[in-house]
Specification:
- The protein is built from 28 helices and twelve strands.
- By secondary structure, the chain is α/β, with parallel strands linked by helices.
- The chain has a seven-stranded mixed beta sheet with strand order 2-1-5-4-3-6-7, covered by helices on one side. Strands 10-9-8-11-12 form a five-stranded mixed beta sheet, sandwiched between helices.
- Helix 16 links the parallel strand 4 and strand 5.
Length: about 750
């Protein structure tokens, strides 16, 4: 009858041993140490002299270990690699699977786990195939013979380790360890299938001895676990990309690997020795000593494991930084190079793994290839998962308008969401669900797997100044940058900003003037009607309810007295949205003025104002001679201080001022009304307000979120025109986020 590879392995191992070393109980009966745990008659006093010697020899091998320096010299002398390639990973995986089956259970006093027989048959069939096809099976045979022979002849652990390492001297350190570990696992799991059935016969006798054996079985399991962990850690160094050996962590790790391999081999030998004699009788008093021996090796292996893991972490950090810098350089070079289309830059940015379908189409809800973006204007929407629904909602409206305009201009474009997600939490159910909800809610394309852009996250932050706040990077059909953040343009001019280039932004500003339509754009048709009818219009903001009551009441009073058509619209604040909600509720109940019921419009109003500021700064227009810039700075400063008002006649803005001076101008109507017949209401109101404003000596302050990446070097106060001091502010994000927050 033919033997399978595992049976051949054991046959060869035992065939080379002297017969007397295999003599056991029952009058010189031949004993197979692999099968002794199945024999109920073995339970009793210790009688086997061979196993007694093995027990003593192994126990003394730790306490009487030779000087480690001398041992390590012997270990290094065994290392003569000739470049032989070994599939060490497959051997390690096989060993780990087998060792899971032989993990010691104190309640069985054997190397048998409660394993399904069918699963074992399938597993061993795979192993037989591996051994048959593995050219190193001869080496494993020799290791098995050497290990079993020297264990049963009571050779000490140090000598066995050196002997085994000599047999694998032509392999690299990781391969040596894989071969020895695989040999150990094969020897002590070969008859697992038979044991899984036969062990049931011993249950009554096993139970009596299960409790005292538990400390030793626990210690043995712990040592096997530590050996496996250290082995995989060593293999991780093998799989690292080849880089300069000058990385200190790698140098330290490589100098430690021989020591780690040696002590792992010693751990394997100790496990083998203890498992081998588990089928023989022993004195219960020896269990504590044996447990201590096993634990001593765990205490030797675990610090090595901790040290190598630390070096691995440090190495990965250093290499990660290097790779990031290389990628940034590559990214920069690609952006600066002329291309016939945008595929090169998009592949580097979005598809480093060469996935066939790396994108998700929000319209069809299907995965698609990068080809859908070839030779298109691409707007890269780069954000985290905290992008507000208000932003998405407004962007969707503009997106629809731009799609129509893009077709009309024969300038096709696409929007693509590039999610920047902390990959360490990406696999949690909550984050996965949040990402999928976002992706499915967007009508444009999205990167299907955030991990695809994990490698270029730092490049995006460095090259495009992404600081967690959403940005919109524009690439032309050849992949050339047109704008590092077109959001400002999009919020201000919508689809009219197409194709979102810097040149287009400059042109749009040249056409603009300080007028009401700039502030409200097409946000509200009611306000546009007021403009067309040349009505007087008060836009006002703040969250002080008492000021709102007084201001609206006095404003209506002077309108009646002067006989002018006056409308008022409350536009809230750029932050503290809960206060704004309460103010709107009061305005609604008391019918104080017109207001925006949809708070998204309040958010959008202030987003556009802020975008105007940053657009001007980005274009280096932060000049006091720029009237629009001056007025924008005033408006944002007043919003920061509290209440404010802005008076228009039609589209023409007459004046803007702090809440205190605006209210006082209305209260003091009797003091300036006599000028209305000669100067008109517009000039009379403005002159009196400017007089009050000059007397109050108000100055301004601004806060620039660092996420913008566009903080100006200097700024002049829009009121007194002196240079402003620069401060650093820390602001809690619970109710405000810099100038703006989503509503």
């Amino acid at each position: 009858m033919s033997l399978n590879p595992r049976q051949q392995l054991l046959g060869m191992a035992y065939s080379i041993m002297p017969q007397q070393q295999l003599m056991g109980l029952k009058g010189n009966t031949m004993i197979d140490p692999m099968h002794t745990s199945r024999q109920p008659e073995m339970i009793g006093p210790v009688q086997n002299p061979t196993m007694q010697q093995l027990n003593i020899g192994e126990r003394n091998s730790i306490s009487c270990t030779l000087d480690e320096n001398a041992i390590m010299k012997q270990v290094l002398d065994t290392h003569l690699p000739d470049g032989t390639i070994v599939d060490g990973k497959s051997l390690m995986q096989m060993a780990e699977e087998l060792l899971q089956d032989i993990t010691i259970n104190a309640e069985s006093t054997s190397s048998v786990a409660q394993t399904d027989v069918v699963q074992l048959e399938e597993k061993y069939h795979k192993i037989d195939v591996l051994l048959t096809s593995n050219i190193l099976s001869h080496t494993i045979d020799k290791l098995a013979c050497e290990m079993l022979f020297k264990l049963l002849t009571s050779v000490d652990g140090d000598s066995i380790a050196i002997s085994l390492l000599h047999l694998v001297e032509n392999f690299h350190w990781d391969a040596k360890l894989a071969l020895i570990l695989a040999t150990f696992a094969l020897i002590y799991s070969t008859d697992q299938l038979e044991m899984s059935t036969d062990i049931l016969e011993q249950v009554p006798m096993i139970t009596e001895y299960s409790t005292p054996l538990k400390p030793r079985s626990d210690a043995l399991n712990e040592l096997i676990y530590s050996v496996l962990e250290l082995s995989w850690c060593i293999f991780q160094f093998k799989e690292l990309p080849s880089v300069s050996s000058k990385v200190p962590a790698m140098t330290r790790a490589l100098s430690t690997v021989p020591t780690a391999v040696y002590w792992n081999v010693r751990g394997i030998i100790s496990c083998a020795a203890h498992i081998t004699r588990m089928g023989y009788e022993y004195e219960i008093s020896s269990i504590e000593i044996e447990s201590s021996e096993l634990s001593s090796l765990v205490l030797k292996i675990n610090p090595l494991l901790e040290f190598l893991r630390k070096q691995l972490e440090e190495y990965n950090h250093v290499i990660g930084k290097k790779n990031e810098m290389d990628l940034i350089e590559t990214f920069s070079q690609v952006l600066d190079t002329a291309h016939i289309d945008n595929m090169n830059i998009l592949n580097i940015l979005l598809n480093p793994w060469n996935e066939p379908l790396p994108l998700f189409d929000g319209a069809t809800k299907q995965r698609v290839s990068l080809e859908v973006l070839r030779k298109r204007n691409v707007l890269l929407l780069i954000s985290g998962l905290d992008m507000s629904r208000d932003e998405v909602s407004i962007l969707e409206q503009i997106y629809s308008e731009m799609r129509v305009q893009g077709r009309r201009m024969d300038s096709l474009y696409e929007v693509l969401w590039v999610p920047i997600v902390d990959l360490s939490v990406m696999n949690t159910d909550k984050v996965k669900e949040q990402f999928e909800d976002f992706m499915n809610s967007m009508p444009w394309y999205s990167v299907y797997n955030p991990s695809q852009v994990g490698m270029v996250q730092r490049s995006i932050r460095e090259m495009w100044h992404f600081r967690n706040k959403p940005i919109l990077v524009v690439l032309d059909p050849q992949g050339k940058e047109l704008n590092l953040n077109a959001f400002h343009m999009m919020w201000i001019w919508g689809s009219n900003a197409f194709p979102f280039s810097i040149a287009r932004e400059e042109a749009l500003w040249r056409e603009e003037t300080w007028r009401l339509e700039l502030l409200t754009s097409g946000m509200d048709p009611t306000i546009l009607d007021w403009v067309r009818e040349s009505r007087y219009i008060f836009l006002y903001g703040g969250d002080d309810i008492e000021w709102i009551r007084k201001f609206t009441s006095n404003a209506r009073a002077i309108a009646r007295a002067a006989g002018i058509p006056l409308e008022m619209c409350y536009v809230g604040k750029s932050k503290q949205r809960e206060n704004v909600r309460r103010a709107i509720a009061t305005i609604n109940v008391e019918k104080l003025s017109y207001f925006w019921e949809d708070l998204t419009l309040v958010w959008f109003f202030w987003t556009r104002i802020e975008s105007m500021l940053f657009s001007k700064i980005q274009l280096k227009h932060a000049d006091d001679q720029d009237l629009v810039m001056l007025q924008i700075k005033k408006l944002l400063s007043y919003d920061k201080d509290g209440s404010w008002g802005l008076l228009c006649r039609g589209s023409h803005i007459l004046t803007i001022g702090h809440g205190s001076t605006m209210l006082q101008t209305c209260v003091d109507f009797d003091l300036w009304k006599q000028h209305i017949p000669s100067r008109g209401f517009d000039l009379s109101f403005k002159n009196y307000h400017d007089k009050l404003h000059g007397a109050t000596n108000n100055c301004s302050r601004f806060e620039f979120p660092i996420v913008e990446g566009s903080i100006p070097e200097g700024m002049r106060c829009p009121e007194c025109h002196r240079s402003m001091e620069k401060h650093i502010a820390f602001i809690c994000c619970h109710d405000q986020t810099g100038l703006l927050e989503p509503y």
